[in-house]
Design brief:
The protein is an alpha/beta fold and 301 residues long. It contains 15 helices and 6 strands. The protein has a 6-stranded mixed β-sheet with strand order 4-3-5-2-1-6, with helices on both faces. β1 and β2 form a beta hairpin.
């Protein structure tokens, strides 16, 4: 369960790459050899790699691979302890003490439809009843994904592939962030009241949320960034929509931070960056930031 929850946590901030392609070549600005960046979807299977034109050649041409973080550290005991702590409500607090009776009824109704069980089951309550609303929301998302017949193997994930291949070939592997940083961004960036509000948004707007998720997944597998961006930009036009500062914390600020690290890595060795593709498109996306920094960024076809 812990492995699934952490992989899901990463999935929360992932999407795709730009205009019908996921892989981009980065050159110019004094680079002696090009580097590459590929947009990932964290729940996708590693076999999808073969559907990306030029992907294996880019992997062969690069001497190091950098992800958002180092995947082999995800399931280390210290990392899992940090994750478990971040996913749990403080002290003796439980979800039913945070939510009203009516809100708990709505959560249970959603759970019965999505999982087939609810918090009235003592085992379910023991495992999930002390989770923060943010953590529970991520768990609900993955169960919803699996319910649609999608496959999910955390040991054979799309992100894992690049770093596993690099390790097998004796190449350098690194991360642009630490696990502690990602946990803080995912779990500690919102108050419990805001987490509760967003959990109820998910529960009360399940049709809308499912449609958004379906469109993101379909666009990713079509390698259609425009379609993914359109899906991610879907709004309910109420407090359920991300606030600008929430988008900045999850995506924009991290993009800017990566741009302070990527130039030195690319100058050192040809590098393949494999990051959640929601970070690639848009004015504040990594592709545009690289171009603004003076690099040539071209889709690989």
């Amino acid at each position: 369960m812990k492995k699934i929850l952490f992989t899901l946590a990463l999935a929360a901030i992932a999407s795709l790459s730009a205009s019908a392609q996921l892989l981009y070549k980065i050159s110019g600005k004094g680079l002696t050899a090009p580097s590459y960046i590929v947009g990932t979807y964290h729940l996708a299977d590693a076999s999808f790699v073969d559907s990306i034109p030029g992907m294996r050649q880019a992997m062969a041409d690069c001497q190091q691979v950098y992800g958002e973080l180092m995947m082999n550290e995800l399931f280390a005991p210290d990392s899992l302890a940090l994750l478990q702590q971040a996913m749990m409500l403080p002290g003796e607090m439980t979800l039913d003490s945070l939510l009203t009776a009516d809100e708990m009824n709505r959560v249970n109704s959603y759970m019965r439809k999505t999982i087939g069980l609810d918090m009235t089951n003592p085992q379910v309550a023991q495992q999930m009843g002390k989770m923060t609303p943010q953590a529970l929301s991520l768990v609900f998302s993955i169960f919803s994904y699996l319910k649609k017949g999608e496959k999910f193997d955390p040991t054979n994930g799309f992100d894992n592939y690049f770093q596993k291949e690099a390790h097998a070939q004796g190449k350098t592997v690194g991360g642009l962030e630490t696990m502690a940083f990602q946990i803080k961004a995912l779990y500690e960036g919102k108050s419990l009241e805001r987490q509760k509000e967003l959990l109820m948004c998910q529960v009360d707007n399940s049709v809308f949320m499912d449609e958004m998720a379906d469109r993101i997944v379909k666009a990713f597998y079509a390698q259609d960034l425009d379609g993914v961006k359109e899906a991610m930009d879907m709004k309910l036009h109420n407090s359920c929509d991300n606030m600008p500062e929430e988008d900045a914390q999850l995506v924009d600020n991290r993009n800017a931070d990566w741009l302070t690290k990527m130039p030195a890595l690319m100058a050192q060795k040809p590098t393949l960056f494999a990051v959640g593709a929601a970070h690639l498109p848009g004015e504040k996306g990594v592709l545009n930031l690289l171009r603004q920094a003076g690099y040539t960024v071209e889709g690989v076809k």
